[in-house]
Write a structure and sequence with these properties.
The structure is a single chain. This protein is of the alpha+beta class. It has two domains: about 70 residues, no CATH class; about 50 residues, Nucleic acid-binding proteins (OB fold (Dihydrolipoamide Acetyltransferase, E2P), Beta Barrel). The chain contains four helices and five strands; from the N terminus they run H-H-H-H-E-E-E-E-E. A five-stranded mixed beta barrel has the order 1-2-3-5-4. A hairpin with a 2-residue loop joins strand 2 and strand 3. Helix 1 packs antiparallel against helix 2 and helix 2 runs antiparallel to helix 3. The chain is elongated.
């Protein structure tokens, strides 16, 4: 590929990525915006370094704008329709590891990331009761012995 066809190729690739993102359940629009911006700026005769930096800025802007739009429309249908098949609330486990901002709790033979309900410190070996779930993290409190 010669250098004259590079900007057109980048622009076409960027537009194809944006179109692909509209048909699949992925979030790749910022990558398409970066390629398209890079192709346009190189086609206008800008230097590669400046074009690259501006394309990264455009990708971050696309991430912020499109990400905010996507998050606004996302609903947790499983919670609304009570379709979760595993509800760990009320189960008792044991702290097996301490991370920087979380704990690892063993519950029914599986290890889970956990955060304490009240922010209080936990020790390895503490028995904990699950009081809630936040995404994939368990919210726990010390269990009464």
């Amino acid at each position: 590929m010669d250098m004259e066809s590079l900007p057109i190729s980048l622009l076409v690739l960027g537009l194809l990525i944006i179109l692909l993102d509209m048909t699949v359940t992925a979030f790749i629009t910022p990558i398409g915006v970066a390629f398209a911006t890079l192709g346009i700026l190189l086609g206008l005769g800008w230097g590669f370094s400046e074009s690259f930096v501006l394309s990264l800025i455009a990708a971050v802007a696309a991430y912020l704008l499109v990400g905010r739009y996507i998050r606004r429309d996302v609903r947790d249908i499983g919670a609304e329709e009570k379709k979760y098949t595993f509800d760990p609330r009320g189960k008792v486990g044991r702290v097996v590891e301490i991370g920087r901002e979380h704990y690892i709790v063993e519950l029914d033979g599986d290890r889970w990331i956990a955060v304490p309900e009240n922010g209080g410190p936990l020790e390895v070996g503490d028995r904990v009761e699950v009081t809630g779930v936040d995404g994939v993290k368990l919210i726990v409190k010390k269990a009464g012995d």
